[in-house]
Write a structure and sequence with these properties.
By secondary structure, the protein is mostly helical. Helix content is 67%, strand content 2%. It contains ten helices and two strands. The chain has helices at residues 7-18, 32-38, 45-52, 81-100, 104-122, 130-152, 156-169, 174-186, 190-203, 208-237; strands at 2-3, 56-57. A two-stranded antiparallel ribbon has the order 1-2. The mean pLDDT is 86.
């Protein structure tokens, strides 16, 4: 056994990997010693204690299985920059196929992996530079696909956040307005939903039948909600 001063940071990265997160989450570009001083807490009490009081460690490593090269798909965090860029179209295709099969959460996970690959590359570019913009334009359709999955999974506030982030950069993105309008309608933000659907029509009048259907659905739900509220409040005030 020997002192392993940097092990708490390594352990945090391994725990992030096990949770499906970026192993470098929360870290910045600096040497390992500076990285240790950067964090008042690593998010795990046992690692915080080990960082304050380094101790000799013994590692037991168990080989679970051996997979030959090329027999498995690497996680995004393990890929080189070139591998990330090459993997995105295939991951996108796999997400689309899963979505067609009705496997929506699994499709969302694929889109998320593809977005993570591109975001990782984008972080290395100057915001607003041609390369940054090119990567962002590849991220946007993937993010819209991801939002479509989240709509179907009824995770509306995540849709609102992502679509708003898209529209902050691309004010004429019809799909982002439409998906955000559906999310607003689902959480009873009536005025916001109507405004987004109006923007959809202004940008693409050919979508009037689709927008009209969404507005009729919203109006029907509002009437149903009003009727339920009247019954509920009538019971309260009659007591």
């Amino acid at each position: 056994p020997q002192h392993v001063v940097l092990y708490p940071l390594v352990s945090k990265s391994l725990r992030n990997i096990a949770a499906g997160k970026d192993p470098l989450e929360g870290q910045r570009h600096c040497c390992s010693i500076a990285q240790m001083h950067e964090h008042y807490s690593l998010g795990y009490p046992d690692l915080d204690e080990l960082q304050k009081n380094p101790q000799p460690l013994i590692f037991d490593i168990e080989v679970l299985k051996v997979e030959p090269p090329g027999s498995y798909q690497q996680d995004p965090w393990a890929m080189t920059d070139e591998e990330k860029l090459q993997a995105v179209p295939q991951i996108h295709k796999e997400g689309n196929e899963l979505y067609r099969q009705g496997k929506v959460p699994e499709a969302a996970a694929k889109y998320y992996d593809a977005i993570a690959c591109l975001k990782n590359l984008q972080m290395k570019e100057q915001p607003g530079s041609p390369d940054w913009i090119e990567l962002d334009q590849k991220i946007t359709p993937l993010l819209l696909n991801y939002c479509q999955c989240k709509l179907q999974c009824e995770e509306y506030y995540e849709v609102l956040d992502h679509c708003s982030s898209i529209l902050n950069k691309y004010e004429d993105n019809v799909k982002a307005y439409f998906k955000r309008g559906k999310a607003h309608a689902a959480v009873w933000n009536v005025a916001e939903a109507q405004a987004d659907f109006a923007k959809v029509l202004a940008l693409d009048p050919s979508l009037r039948p689709v927008v009209s259907k969404e507005l009729r659905s919203l109006e029907a739900r509002l009437r149903e909600k009003d009727a339920e509220d009247k019954i509920r409040f009538k019971g309260i005030f009659s007591q």
